[in-house]
Amino acid sequence: MPKVSEDHLAARRSEILDGARRCFGEFGYEGATVRRLEEATGLSRGAIFHHFKDKDGLFLALAQEDARRMAEVAATQGLVQVMRDMLAQPEQFEWLGTRLEITRRLRTDADFRSSWAERSAELTDATLGRLERQKTAGRLRDDVPNDVLADYLDLVLDGLVARIASGHGRSNLAAILDLVEESVRRQD
């Protein structure tokens, strides 16, 4: 039997994550049955769970990948830019439903909360690193600790995600993000 290349395995894994993202986003964790995951990915349960231990492992991998993507933008452009990108290109953010599902599971599932704490550190670290660099450069207010600023921005992100996912209008959201950005800047 021929060996499958690492590139092929990585491509298959990415394909599964893309389909699962849509499925979890549309149906939530509980509603994303194995049958629905098969339909969303176009693969059998055996093919899906060859790459992921179980449904929970699949969801955690998906959530971690989405957090990593956000961390890349947050590290270089800031968490407010992540939010601006959501408004400008909503079709690029299929993970909004996943983010809501993460929030729900954090509240209701102690095992998930423990696993997620280990995996979500990358976004927090990226945000804190960016805040520190901006503060050192004299661009951010220095009367508020960075961890408070990071929590503030994360709270705004959660509110924005909830607002977008619930279908409310987006007409004032760009102006609100301007206000948020202004609130963390150094005032001379």
UniProtKB/TrEMBL annotation:
The entry's DNA-binding region feature spans 33-52
Span of domain HTH tetR-type? 10-70
Q: Which PROSITE patterns match?
A: HTH_TETR_1 (PS01081), HTH_TETR_2 (PS50977)
The keyword DNA-binding is annotated on this UniProt entry: yes
Pfam families given for it? TetR_N
Q: Which UniProt keywords apply?
A: DNA-binding
| Origin superkingdom | Bacteria
What SUPFAM superfamilies does its record include?
A: Homeodomain-like, Tetracyclin repressor-like, C-terminal domain
Keyword flag DNA-binding: yes
> What InterPro entries does its record include?
DNA-bd_HTH_TetR-type_CS, Homeodomain-like_sf, HTH-type_TetR-like_transc_reg, HTH_TetR, Tet_transcr_reg_TetR-rel_C_sf
Q: What is this protein called?
A: Helix-turn-helix domain-containing protein
